[in-house]
Known about the structure:
By secondary structure, the chain is an alpha+beta fold. It has helices spanning about 15-20, 25-30, 35-40, 45-55, 80-105, 115-125, 130-135, 145-160, 165-170, 205-210, 215-225, and strands spanning about 110-115, 180-185, 190, 195, 200-205, 230-235.
Amino acid sequence: MNSIRFSCSSLPQDIILKISSSLQVIDLCALSSCSRFWRELCGSDILWEPLFRQRWPLLSSFDGDNTQFPQAQTNENSQEWRRFYVMQHKKMASRASEVITYVTKCPATLSLEAGKYLQAVETMSSMRLGFQDVELFLFKPNLSVLLNLIGLIYCIQHLKPLREQILDALRRCGISEQLVWVKWLTLGRWSGGRRMRDEIVSRQVSLVDVVTGKEETVLRVLQRGVVHEVLRVCISTVDLACTPCSSSTIRNY
């Protein structure tokens, strides 16, 4: 019996594209390096446009100039979306690096007041980082846990992914059990016509506990920062004593 030679290139292209559409970016890039046939097919806009929109759902156009998304192509061999994906990946890597530099300007024993870390969160929002950007650039075990936490707060506040999605990312990146100290100063309560002394609360929490709701109070304080009865909030890598705030430091950071 004559042997039957079979190759993927003998399959209909629509079937090959359907199979390839289930791959992640790293796998798609690996497949494209196998041959010229796969390089051309794996660069198709049909594959890269969904990958782009899934990773950066908040983007409607490219900031920094007036370049819009690639228009619908009549040429089925167009590979514009892959080029745009690579450009945006590099841009987001640069932006994440700015956040990392901003946070790591602190002393060796990192400690950030609410104003500092919330400013980093808002900066990430203005940069429109996607969830995969946070996972790639901030959910790293070799970075400070404060950066891990800032990335986590940003995801919860602005991206609102499913809880399971965040937990999977934290575990996949090996940072779910990273510990951080959260401390805040609350205004003393009134009792018997007198105001009690201000109270300092200090909690050591893991990132996974913040996500699962086990430390819901901590997450609420982290997200709100200095507001109403909370006079001061800070996060640190060690249990630093929160000194009472003077009148000059009791403000909305």
